[in-house]
Amino acid sequence: MQKGKITKYTPFPQIDLPDRQWPSRTITHAPIWASVDLRDGNQALATPMTVNEKLEMFELLVKIGFKEIEVGFPSASDTEFNFIRRLVDEKRIPADVTLQVLVQAREHLIRRTFESLEGVSKAIVHLYNSTSPVQRRVTFNKTKDEIKAIAVEGTRLVKSLVETIPGTQIRFQYSPESFSDTEVDYALEVCEAVMAEWAPSEDDKIILNLPATVEVATPNVHADQIEWFCRNLKERNKAYISLHTHNDRGTGVAATELGLLAGADRVEGTLFGNGERTGNLDIVTVALNLYTQGVDSALDLSELEQIRRVYERITRMTVHDRHPYAGDLVFTAFSGSHQDAIKKGMDLRSKEGTEGTRWEVPYLAIDPADIGRDYEAIIRINSQSGKGGVAYILERDFGLDLPKAMHPEVGKVVNDTADKGSRELSPDEVREVFMQAYVNLEAPMELLSIEREDFSQSGEVKVDAEISMNGKSNKVTGTGNGPISAFVDALEQDGYKDFQLLDYRQHSIGGGSKTEAAAYIQIKNDDGSVSFGCGINANIELAGLHALVSAFNRAHSKV
To answer: What does residue 457 show for φ and ψ, rounded to 5 degrees?
Structure first.
């Protein structure tokens, strides 16, 4: 790589548009979507789809809601041609779906393309030729006029062939390939020459597709190109302006969104951004970005997990773990502060209700349920996790609603375990760590048996308990206003009490005849430290007593 002054690469020139309007606009409605998965996406696969796989992908795209689907390059191979014939002959094309076919501006390819469309009710013939300076000079060695003539002559041939398939409604799309690297005034000149030849109307508009075949500048420059083109096109009312961004600079989504602000009407792209080199526009991301801004995307992505499974199986590609919306880790938080905030947001929605309320959960831009995902993987536990995440797992998966004061200590115990193993812990492993550290602990003290006697006049309770301390059995007796206070008194009578009872809470776990109780006790030890314990038992009183013993044992296990 060069250092210092870089001479191998130069900045892409800016567009002269001092009064640009797109920065102050807002996207208020979905564009016309056109899927190019079956053509642009398919040609980028190491192993292209078979006809049967293309049929399955076509059905998926229809189910999602695409009304314009580029099904292939029928003049390129028999597979492409035969796929289109299968769609027609087997009557697989819904009445509201328009097939789009791509063809280079070459006579024999155009004629072969029209042969593939016989019997199709509606079709878009997508003609293209490259117009950029580097393509003109390096690939074709032709002048601007010669390149423009290729576009016009191709358009003329397409127009003349429309009458050869009278039962088909043909719409026309033209792409100045490499528009992103073409002088905007020249791209406009070519497109207007094509429009003059095709003669569109307001009722039968031409589609002018302006591809960022290679990303060569920042998204704002792309937006300037689109706005400049829209403002200078003579018969703008007779054309749909279409975007087709690639992702060479990693900004295909941003370029598309800004292009829509700049005046475009239509977007071409693929599911999850599959395409040549670094890929095409990811329509899933753009559509769900719109949705999170309160705009109906007009696409049904409510079963995104299923869409992803079909996509991965057919394309043999994988969706990245951090892919927006669809990645395995998108709705996962490892960071403790993130986990705590997510838990609070979810708890508040549960408390206040969700009907008609605005989605406001920290760190989650979208409700996973809206796209067919769930909360199972929102919180996952590793050494970076915090108190909120551990508490969330214990409550969500096992019904253990820990007192908030207990969260930091339990979180540290679990995280230390994950850190020692240098790995993530499953929910079952989180529960096991908690059980071993806090629940029904039996050393150094074990509660062997207990009997209770109630005094109705005074309201006091007497307990006679047998405990084992460091393996030695002992019987203790005490009184109090309940079994726990009576047991504390018994321990004090026998010289075991070196703590103050600070807090006691309990709740049921599950429902029905097998319901258990969980109790939590917090004690303050004579040295000023605080200890927690948990007891779980079918009997709520025994759960509380086991919680007290567990807290005592945690305090004495630290000594």
So the answer is: -70, -45
Burial of 91 from C-beta contacts in 10 A (0-12 / 13-18 / 19+):
exposed
- Other CB atoms within a 10 A radius of the CB of residue 13 amount to 11
Cβ neighbors of 371 (< 8 A, separation 6 or more) are 288, 301, 302, 303, 304, 305, 325, 326
Supply the angle between the helices 252-261 and 283-291 in degrees, to the nearest 10.
50
Note the residue count of the chain. Answer: 559
Q: Which of 160-174, 339-353, 355-369 has the lowest mean pLDDT?
A: 339-353
Q: Which of 258, 208, 213 is nearest to 236 (CA)?
A: 208
CA distance 504 to 516: 17
**Mean pLDDT across the stretch 469-482?**
92
Short-list 130, 127, 125, CA closest to 147: 130
Per-residue model confidence (pLDDT) at position 559: 46
pLDDT tens for each residue of 417-452: 888 888 888 889 999 999 999 999 999 999 999 999
Decide: 489 and 483 in contact? Cβ < 8 Å.
no
Paired strand residues for 130: 177
Largest CA distance in the chain: 110
State the Cα–Cα distance between residues 193 and 233, nearest whole angstrom: 11
If pLDDT is split at 50, 70 and 90, which confidence band does 201 have?
Answer: very high
Q: What is the pLDDT of residue 151?
A: 98
Burial pattern 102-130, b for ≥16 Cβ within 10 A else e, equals bbbbbeebbeebbebbeebebbbbbbbbb
- Tell me the one-letter amino acid at 468: S
Q: How far apart are CA 212 and CA 9, in angstroms?
A: 19
Q: What is the pLDDT of residues 66-120, one digit of tens each?
A: 999 999 999 988 989 999 999 999 999 999 999 999 999 999 999 999 999 999 9
Peptide bond into 219 cis (omega under 30): no
- Percent of the chain at pLDDT > 70 equals 97
Full set of structural domains in the chain with CATH: 22-315 (3.20.20.70), 336-436 (1.10.287.1400), 445-557 (3.30.160.270)
Predicted structure pTM score: 0.76
pLDDT band at 387 (very low <50, low <70, confident <90, very high): low
| Four-residue CA torsion sign, 20, 24, 25, 27 | positive
Report d(CA 387, CA 398) in Å as an integer.
16
Give the CA distances from residue 40 to residues 70, 71, 125, 205, 328, in Å, rounded to whole numbers and listed in that order: 8, 9, 15, 24, 26
Q: What is the mean pLDDT of the chain?
A: 93
Half-sphere exposure of residue 23: CA atoms within 13 angstroms, side-chain side: 7
How is residue 40 annotated by DSSP?
I
372 contacts 351 by C-beta, under 8 angstroms: no
